[in-house]
């Protein structure tokens, strides 16, 4: 059925942070997109509570970070299983965590998406998928039994850990089951603690009590070897009794806004693509929410996938480019599942765990250890595998200052349009000639580096390169060494691999 008329280029299932970020990325690239969510409207619930540096960097690349900074509170720390990490050492313009509830993140992303022309359909749960050679039919359930069918080039499931899209696509979700029951509630307290309590460990588990906004508190409890039936509704009384068991007090909690339950199950989709169906965010991976990595990983999934999917939709790159999404992002989630399993193990009560935590706490006094774990939690240390062995290639581009004909600009400012950038830092005419066949897909920028050396994670500096090919997600696809004449053949290979054949080819 190759002549089927599509209603839109891409349907995204799920209007959470991952789905909204992906929708914005696609719209920046000129792709028509519809977001379908099973809920009737936003609930105001907020499981995640902040952003890490790499997520702030990608929002900075798009020019919208100021909206989020204005709504949140920076804190120069993070944690690994409740052991504090000093983010001041991180090589970024944003060496902090931004404390900002998920509900606010979603609101700001939806406002941006609306400005870009994204359509969000509420009460629209994906109930069926039929794939064809050139498109996919997406059955969508609506209110009072109404159903409709959307036809699109691609469908992306961003619909959470119980993803209907993943199940309908027949993608397995192997992993490890839950061993703990954790409860979370936003409540008022008649007798709150004098200061925030974060992961207070007791013989029966651990608990946290902290204020996100004036007038109410977030209470979290974790009890080991008590696995609740996920089909049973969670109640306020269940949260209160759990806190009493662990802390010996409920701090006079009352007037709950909402309560939720989660565990430490860790699962990952067997593959992130099945034909014209792709997965991102919690639909592709779930884990214990240790270190605040989940929302951030989902947003970064979206930024990795968005430009690739747009290139394929526009016919500029072959479909095989989409396979690089799984190749790059699957190992990232594997690592997060690994470190969150370790963090969950470090929360277990008992003298053996106490001793292990003491040893790790002493190791964190060493800058290299702190920097290693900080880079992992924030994803600032991420390097995608590339054929080019230059130390910058595959890493996120440093946000250094450049001298251009229009004055000073930061590298991130070159990525506002979500397009690839060929950055020429030595005025090599051969670069422009080589890139002519991709002029419709890459922005050629001639500038000079304001600094002689650029930082490379974790601590080293290298001479400023002669030229870079920067992907729209901010990762470097090709680098010319400082002082060397750029190799046109190597650049042509990189342009073809990531942007498709030259127009003249």
TrEMBL record:
InterPro entries: FAD-bd, FAD/NAD-bd_sf, RIFMO-like. It comes from the Bacteria. Residues 7-339 form the FAD-binding domain. GO terms for molecular function: monooxygenase activity. Its cofactor is FAD. Pfam families: FAD_binding_3, Rng_hyd_C. SUPFAM superfamilies: FAD/NAD(P)-binding domain. This is FAD-dependent monooxygenase. It comes from Streptomyces ossamyceticus.
């Amino acid at each position: 059925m190759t002549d089927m008329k599509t209603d839109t280029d891409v349907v995204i299932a799920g209007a959470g942070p991952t789905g909204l970020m992906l929708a914005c990325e696609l719209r920046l690239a000129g792709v028509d997109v519809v977001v379908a969510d099973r809920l009737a409207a936003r609930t105001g619930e907020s499981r995640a509570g902040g952003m890490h540096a790499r997520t702030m960097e990608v929002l900075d690349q798009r020019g919208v970070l100021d909206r989020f900074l204005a709504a949140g509170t920076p804190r120069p720390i993070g944690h690994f299983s409740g052991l504090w990490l000093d983010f001041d050492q991180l090589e970024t313009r944003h060496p902090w965590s931004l404390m900002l509830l998920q509900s606010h993140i979603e609101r700001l992303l939806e406002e941006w998406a609306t400005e870009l022309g994204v359509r969000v359909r509420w009460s629209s749960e994906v109930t069926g998928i039929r794939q064809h050679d050139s498109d996919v039919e997406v059955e969508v359930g609506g209110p009072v039994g109404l159903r409709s069918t959307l036809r699109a080039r691609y469908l992306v499931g961003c619909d959470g850990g119980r993803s209907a899209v993943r199940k309908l696509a027949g993608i397995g979700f192997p992993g490890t089951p839950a061993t703990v029951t954790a409860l979370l509630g936003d409540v008022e307290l008649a007798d709150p603690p004098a200061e925030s309590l974060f992961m207070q460990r007791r013989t029966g588990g651990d608990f946290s009590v902290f204020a996100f906004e004036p007038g109410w508190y977030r209470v979290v409890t974790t009890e080991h070897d008590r696995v609740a039936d996920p089909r049973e509704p969670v109640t306020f009384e269940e949260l209160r009794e759990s806190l009493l068991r662990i802390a010996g007090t409920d701090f006079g909690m009352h007037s709950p806004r909402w309560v939720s339950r989660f565990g430490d199950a860790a699962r990952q989709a067997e593959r992130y693509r099945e034909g014209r169906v792709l997965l991102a965010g919690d639909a592709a991976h779930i884990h214990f929410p240790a270190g605040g990595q989940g929302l951030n990983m989902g947003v970064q999934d979206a930024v990795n996938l968005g430009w690739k999917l747009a290139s394929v939709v526009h016919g500029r790159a072959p479909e095989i480019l989409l396979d690089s999404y799984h190749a790059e992002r699957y190992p990232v989630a594997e690592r997060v599942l690994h470190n969150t399993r370790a963090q969950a193990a470090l929360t277990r009560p008992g003298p053996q765990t106490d001793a292990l935590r003491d040893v790790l706490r002493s190791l964190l006094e060493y800058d290299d250890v702190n920097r290693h774990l900080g880079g992992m939690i924030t994803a600032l240390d991420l390097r995608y595998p590339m054929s080019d062995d230059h130390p910058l290639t595959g890493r996120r581009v440093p946000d250094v200052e450049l001298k251009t004909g229009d004055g000073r600009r930061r590298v991130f400012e070159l990525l506002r349009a979500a397009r690839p950038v060929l950055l020429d830092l030595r005025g090599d005419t051969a670069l422009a000639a080589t890139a002519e066949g991709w002029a419709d897909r890459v922005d050629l920028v001639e500038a000079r580096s304001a600094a002689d050396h650029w930082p490379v994670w974790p601590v080293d500096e290298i001479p400023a390169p002669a030229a870079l090919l920067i992907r729209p997600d901010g990762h470097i696809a090709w680098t010319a060494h400082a002082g060397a004449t750029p190799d046109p053949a190597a650049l042509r290979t990189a342009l073809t691999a990531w942007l498709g054949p030259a127009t003249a080819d």
